[in-house]
Every structure is written in C-alpha cells, then in structure tokens.
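Hey team,

Filing this mostly as a record. A colleague (T.K.) asked me to run one chain through the structure pipeline before their review meeting, and I want the input and output archived in the tracker in case anyone asks later how it was produced. No errors, nothing strange. Just documentation.

Input sequence:
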Amino acid sequence: RQHLERRDPNKAALERELGWEPAPDQLLAAMVTRMDAQKGVDLALDALPGLTDLPWRFILLGTGDPDLERRAADFAGAHADRVRFLPRFDPPLSRRIYGGADLLLVPSRYEPCGLAQLIAMRYGCLPLVRAVGGLRDTVVPEDVGSAGTGFLFEAAEPGALGLAVRRALAAFGDRIRWTQMQRNAMAQDFSWEESAAAYQCLYEELVARRSS
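Output structure:
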C-alpha cells in the first residue's frame, strides 16, 4: 500500500499463486465481491467472453448466489488459460489481489457507497465502475484531464462494460498514463478528517448566508 514500486513483484507473485506464469504486459483484472445480481457479476461474465482477442487475465473471488457461482465456474473452466474463479471468502487473498491486480471491476447495478473501489485505489489498483451511487462519487473518469483515477460506464449492460474494459486496456498500454492514474488513485483521501473539514466549511457557509 502506497508503494507503487511493489506492485510489479506483487502481481508476479499473485499470478504464480494462481498457477500462471507472470505476464507483466498482460492486464490483470479482478473482482472481489459478493456473488449477487446487485454486484453486476453477470455483466462481467457476459462481457468478458467477447474480449478474448485482447490480452487480459481475470480473477473472481467471492461466494453467494449458487447460479452465479456455477456460471463463474463454467466460465473459468472454458477459459482456464486466463480466468480463475475462487468461490470463497478470503480476506488475505483479497488484499493480495488489491496489491497485485491492475484493474478492479465493480459493475454494480446500485451501490450507495462501495468500499472495494476505495481499497483498490489505495493499493494502486485502478477501479472500473458503473457510474452509480458512491462509485460515481469516488472515481474520477480517465478522460478528465490528468486527474483520472479509474474508468466509468453508464448502462448496466455487458456491451457498456465491455467497451469500458477496452478503454482500460488501451490506457494500460500507455505506461506513463497508467502510472499517473495509479498515483492519482493512491493519493485520494477519503478519511473522516477530509469529510469533517468539508462539512465544517459547508456549515460555516450556511451560517454566514443566514446571518447576511
């Protein structure tokens, strides 16, 4: 965490742990999630098969809905060279994923806040999120000048998610741009100190308006 130079060895170690040879030039995407329709797991399982012409690997860690688990297992079995599905709750592994994966998919249908994208950014793992709720509030899209911290898409549809993954892959190919986005993400401060200061400023502004 907070040490970008550790990410390459972290990624290589994670890939070896999952039975792959390290591939630094291949984007490593991941989902660490509850297996539930709310989390958009089905969107990822529908979108990724249409992107097999591109260089990526995918890790899905989570447990929940039995039908989604079966779909994920079938997907991993059909693409064993690039997909791993781990049907369990495993906090230590989730941290290794945040520390080693390049991209975290959070394609939620709704998400009042969301923690996964915040943890991922802290580790320099860029979030790709649906532009909804707390996900929209906390991720700066890549097309906002040089301030981007991740990737957003609007519609809860596999096609929209697939296009966003393609954008992420294009950005990953530009190492200078990708590294800048990682640094931007790692510099985000979602602590209560920042929130409290913002609330105080708002309160003082409202008091001043009422007094004038």
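Quick notes for T.K.: The first strand starts at residue 27 and ends at 32. The radius of gyration is 18 Å.
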